[in-house]
Design a protein that fits this description.
Layout: E1 2-4, E2 14-23, E3 27-36, E4 42-51, E5 54-61, E6 65-72, E7 75-84, E8 94-101, E9 104-109, E10 112-118, E11 126-134, E12 138-150
Antiparallel strand pairs: 1-12, 2-11, 3-8, 3-12, 4-5, 4-11, 5-6, 6-7, 8-9, 9-10
């Protein structure tokens, strides 16, 4: 997917796009993704437990960082602050695995547990791939080997 963040607020913000891929509350999802861009401000990830405009958003950057946010009632809340992890490969393909069971979420990158989080705040079933760029930034996002397994 080729994506360019349009200038909406004078190059001070970013633009996000979601691609709905499945519905499940408890699941394991894995996907390989790569960002190709000469700019640093590009990310990809997964929006999950979605219902309308309420969801969790787990994002990874091409600079080796990740974070978790929640959008609920039109308000963004940071749940895990932006941080680096050695399992995330800079400017290379990375395999993200998300395990959602009950109120516990586990995040793996390239087979290594990066973090986990517990919350019962959202209970929707929508799962989406997400891409984001800063305004004016062009990036190519490549995805492969997408697998979603719903837990019984």
């Amino acid at each position: 997917m080729d994506f360019t963040g349009k200038n909406i607020q004078g190059y001070t913000n970013g633009v996000i796009k979601w691609l709905n891929i499945a519905e499940a509350r408890d699941f394991t999802m894995s996907v390989k993704g790569k960002i190709i861009s000469k700019f640093d401000n590009a990310t990809w990830g997964i929006a999950f437990r979605g219902e309308g405009s309420n969801f969790y958003s787990l994002m990874f950057s091409n600079l080796g960082t990740y974070w978790l946010e929640q959008l609920k009632s039109n308000k963004w809340t940071t749940l895990i602050q932006t941080r680096a992890h050695s399992a995330i490969r800079w400017d290379e393909e990375n395999e993200l695995t998300l395990v959602a069971g009950g109120d516990t979420f586990e995040f793996y990158m390239n087979g290594e547990l990066v973090n986990s989080y517990e919350s019962s705040s959202l209970s929707g079933k929508e799962i989406s791939l997400s891409v984001w760029t800063a305004e004016g930034v062009t990036a190519r996002f490549e995805f492969d080997d997408l697998v979603v397994k719903q837990k019984p």
